[in-house]
Design brief:
Layout (H helix, E strand, L loop, with lengths): L29 E5 L7 H11 L3 E5 L6 E5 L5 E5 L9 E5 L1 H4 L9
Parallel strand pairs: 1-2
Antiparallel strand pairs: 2-5, 3-4, 4-5
Amino acid sequence: MRNGHGLPNQGRVRLKRLVQLKNETQKIRIGMLNVGMMNGKSREIVDLMSRRKVNKLYIQETRWKGNKAKELAKGYMLIYSGTDEKGRNGVGVIIDKELKGGINEVERK
């Protein structure tokens, strides 16, 4: 028997999932976002993560000075690292309240 493309389809195994996890509770959603500048966007980003069910979001171009961690709305946490010069570069990660409980220590190098 042939399918619409003329290819045999008898005995073909269809993949139900690309990745099989041992424990279903280990599923997390990860995202990446270039924010351009973080000032005044934390609430908007938390809402985006909540709507899209993202557990961990890596952000670029925060343009914040220093290395800190801060609490955001709805139990989210931002850990960021910037340069000594304000207004340039900077990266960070925002994690949801479920993953936040698993963090014991943040080491910056």
